[in-house]
């Protein structure tokens, strides 16, 4: 069965303390891996799409990487405004997207 | 232009009543998705529309759930005979195609008493 697992469930960082969020997946065939940010009471907001192992994408303090088994979202020198839930999702070509349960990130000033 | 909109933003209903949730996608987006997000859970994929057609309805939790899309635009998710376990946030998203970036609406919070 296709599965997406995110870790840790929650993460507290001091402002400026870099860290990484993990998204591991077990799927029959990966057609794309997506990272989203979700603020409380809002819908997810798109961050990145990765299609093949070895691919990397960056945006401001965020960098996403992909291997054949997992993806990492690296956060460099985070700020309080980076506090949110970060979701990853995979698409396997079967009309369905499979989301992980997310990592709740809190960045303290 | 305008993003994805959903209505109502909040819905409180009594067990056994029917509810309709509406989604207005971004103009020109042919792909439309419905998800359910329960407290502390990830997004559960419900259904995908390409135009007015839904190739796979197997994500709908039960036969009490149905969805339609008309004119390649507005979509309605209907839940009949609501149960307390249906309480969740229902999210809609749209994209140009199924592998393109999905843009989410703000969601409808459904509470079944």
Oligomer designation:
heterodimer
Give the CATH H-level superfamily of chain B. Answer: Immunoglobulins
Indicate the radius of gyration of chain A in whole angstroms.
13 Å
Question: How does CATH name the architecture of chain A?
Answer: Sandwich
Output the helix-strand order of chain A. Answer: EEEEEEEEEEE
> Which strand-content bin applies to the residues of chain A?
over 45%
Low-confidence stretches of chain A: none
- Structural domain count of chain A: 1
Global structural class of chain A? mainly beta
Give the overall pLDDT of chain A as a whole number.
Answer: 95
Overall CATH architecture of chain B? Sandwich
- CATH class placement of chain B: Mainly Beta
Quick one: overall form of chain B?
Answer: globular
Number of self-contained structural domains of chain B: 1
Largest interface: A-B, 24 and 24 residues
Number of helices, counting only DSSP H or I runs of 4 residues or more of chain A: 0
Protein described:
The complex is a heterodimer of chains A (about 110) and B (about 110). In chain A, about 35% of the residues are buried. Chain A is mostly beta strands and about 110 residues long. In chain A, about 0% of the residues lie in helices and about 60% in strands. In chain A, strands 2, 4, 5, 9, 10 and 11 form a six-stranded mixed sheet that branches. Chain A has a five-stranded antiparallel sheet with strand order 1-3-8-7-6, with no helix packed on it. Chain A has strands spanning about 5, 10-15, 20-25, 30-40, 45-50, 55-60, 60-65, 70-75, 85-90, 95-100, 105-109. Chain B starts with a strand and ends with a strand. In chain B, the strands form two sheets. In chain B, strands 2, 4, 5, 8, 9 and 10 form a six-stranded mixed sheet that branches. A four-stranded antiparallel sheet of chain B has the order 1-3-7-6, with no helix packed on it. The interface between A and B is medium-sized, with 24 and 24 residues.
Throw out a few tags for this protein.
heterodimer; A: 109 residues; mainly beta; Immunoglobulin-like; 6-stranded mixed β-sheet; 5-stranded antiparallel β-sheet; globular; B: 113 residues; 4-stranded antiparallel β-sheet
């Amino acid at each position: 069965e296709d599965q997406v697992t995110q870790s840790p469930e929650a993460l507290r960082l001091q402002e400026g303390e870099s860290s990484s969020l993990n998204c591991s997946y077990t799927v029959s065939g990966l057609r794309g891996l997506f990272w989203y940010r979700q603020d409380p009471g809002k819908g997810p907001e798109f961050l990145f799409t990765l299609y093949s192992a070895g691919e990397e994408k960056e945006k401001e303090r965020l960098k996403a990487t992909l291997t054949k088994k997992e993806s990492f979202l690296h956060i460099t020198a985070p700020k309080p405004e980076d506090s949110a839930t970060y979701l990853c999702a995979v698409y396997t070509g079967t009309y369905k997207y499979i989301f992980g349960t997310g990592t709740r990130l809190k960045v303290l000033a | 232009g305008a993003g994805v909109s959903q209505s109502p933003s909040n819905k409180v209903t009594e067990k056994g009543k029917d509810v309709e949730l509406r989604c207005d996608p971004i103009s020109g987006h042919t792909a439309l998705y419905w998800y359910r997000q329960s407290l502390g859970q990830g997004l559960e994929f419900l259904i995908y529309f390409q135009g007015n057609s839904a190739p796979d309805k197997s994500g709908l939790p039960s036969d009490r759930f149905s969805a339609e899309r008309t004119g390649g635009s507005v979509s309605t998710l209907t839940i009949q005979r609501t149960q307390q376990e249906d309480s969740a946030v229902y999210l809609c998203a749209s994209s140009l195609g199924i592998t393109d970036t999905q843009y989410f609406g703000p969601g409808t919070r459904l509470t079944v008493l």
